[in-house]
Amino acid sequence: xxxxxxxxxxxxxxxxxxxxxxxxxxxxxxxxxxxxxxxxxxxxxxxxxxxxxxxxxxxxxxxxxxxxxxxxxxxxxxxxxxxxxxxxxxxxxxxxxxxxxxxxxxxxxxxxxxxxxxxxxxxxxxxxxxxxxxxxxxxxxxxxxxxxxxxxxxxxxxxxxxxxxxxxxxxxxxxxxxxxxxxxxxxxxxxxxxxxxxxxxxxxxxxxxxxxxxxxxxxxxxxxxxxxxxxxxxxxxxxxxxxxxxxxxxxxxxxxxxxxxxxxxxxxxxxxxxx
Length: 275
Fold this sequence. Notes:
Layout: E1 5-10, E2 13-18, H1 29-44, E3 50-55, H2 66-69, H3 77-84, H4 91-100, H5 103-110, E4 115-119, E5 122-124, H6 126-133, E6 136-140, E7 144-146, H7 160-168, H8 170-179, E8 183-184, H9 185-190, E9 196-198, H10 203-215, H11 219-231, H12 237-252, H13 255-266
Helix pairs in contact: 1-5, 5-6, 6-7, 7-8, 11-12
């Protein structure tokens, strides 16, 4: 099952690929667990400067694979244990299982380095949470979004309501969730769901250039920039002044800040080490 999630590290840029193209990269229980593991590793690795999440084939991800979620993977001991447990139908236990599978968006949103969703084709259901949790979304003109949850009689998961509301606002988010209509790439750009729409043939080139700028940037500064922006979601302006001041002092004492200042006066490109 590890082949369902592919990773490739190229000079600081880690590309994580959902790799079940025959099912439009539909997410299984095991697949989400492996994805969460790869994202935890990326968050902790000093070699990773930026993370690109994408899907193989003609789609980003069609959401959870309903057929797979209802099947037992005999090779997955934890899943078999859950399935055979007499409290399987207990609502709190089932909710805890779902919460554990929801760590991917939390990791993408919270890891101390920039994350980019590279999207072509369908981005549906749970996949909208993964995409919305990233710092940036660069999409092909073929991209199509739908929360989809209401269409199959469920309410949503993986923090989708949180991340999408932050991007498009509360009123638009309600519309996207209640009606679950398809949102094409140009409309997604208009409402703020994505950052950039590019021709399909140029998607990889555009994302690589975008990610390269981030990977070559100051990782320590990016870490605290992201920390500031995430903190701003729940703190007051007065509190943010204090948080930003503390983080600014931390960065100013770093080797990267000294290198940036030296490079400025020497009229050269700085070389950042993350220290």
